[in-house]
Amino acid sequence: MKIPPMQTVDEPSLVKSYVLLPLLMDVLERDMATLAIVNLKLPLVYITCLQSAQDAIMAELATLKGQLRNKGIKVYQQERTKQALDVRYLCRGYHHQFTMLWTVVKPEIERMLSEFMQVDLTQAKRLPSSYPSAKKAP
């Protein structure tokens, strides 16, 4: 009887991307809804840019789904807790799991979005303290 091969080094990163991309889609949806109600001079430009990123993300998600299927990988549980994202998946008959703290998920999603939008965050300037997202919570 032939034993199925164990998980390879690159397969966990495929699963991680497969789990994080839908979260990124949720973030973009929320941001587009916010942009639609804010009084901007050129909202169409910003929303169209985010929609283009969504299209690229959907294409990447479809590709990932096919790769996972071909490799015999199935994500069967995702649980969002207050502290982390817990993921369980099957890889050629073997159960695996990983947990990502939300403090790790956010920068990872930010990095992924910057790649889709072709923005170099290493060159980004810090947000002025007047921006709401730059303010620290008490």
Q: What string gives the helices and strands in order?
A: HHEEEH
Average pLDDT taken over every residue:
89
Q: Structural class, from helix and strand content?
A: alpha+beta
Sequence stretches where pLDDT stays below 50 over 5 or more residues: 134-138
SS elements, strand count: 3
Q: State the strand order across the main sheet.
A: 1-2-3
Provide the gyration radius in Å.
Answer: 18 Å
The CA-CA distance between the termini, in Å, is 60 Å
Pfam families: YhjD
InterPro entries: YhjD-like
How would you describe this protein?
This protein has 138 residues and is of the alpha+beta class. It has one domain (11-116). Helices cover 51% and strands 17% of the residues. It has 3 helices and 3 strands; from the N terminus they run ααβββα. A 3-stranded antiparallel sheet has the order 1-2-3. A hairpin with a 3-residue loop joins strand 1 (73-80) and strand 2 (84-91). 6% of the residues are buried. Residues 134-138 have low confidence and may be disordered. InterPro entries: YhjD-like. Pfam families: YhjD (PF26325).
